Amino acid sequence: MVYIPFDIILFEILIRLNGRSIDKYKCVCRQWNEGLSSWKFMSLHVNYVEEYLVRYFTCVLLTFIFKLLVHLNC
Fold it and tell me: pTM for the full model?
């Protein structure tokens, strides 16, 4: 069996979850509760979510502009 360090699980995997899922995973054990409740995790999670939303809405906006330009050129 492969051992995955808790820091990798916390800062590479769980950081991608939504808030409800994070709250559920706080019940796994005391270590997870402390890690998921830490300021470092919360700060990194907010930054990850902000970056994701910026990328998502940039793609949506560019798609809208492209479709509008295609429609105007037809």
Answer: 0.66
Contacts of the segment 48-56: beta carbons below 8 A, 24+ positions apart: 48/15, 48/16
Spatial distance between the Cα atoms of 6 and 55, rounded to a whole number of angstroms:
28
Average pLDDT over the chain reads 87
pLDDT at 2 over 90: no
Burial class of residue 56 in the structure, from the number of CB atoms within 10 Å of its CB (0-12 exposed, 13-18 middle, 19+ buried):
exposed
At 3 the three-state DSSP class reads coil
Give the separation between CA 34 and CA 50, rounded to whole angstroms. Answer: 23
- Cβ contact 41:35 at 8 Å: yes
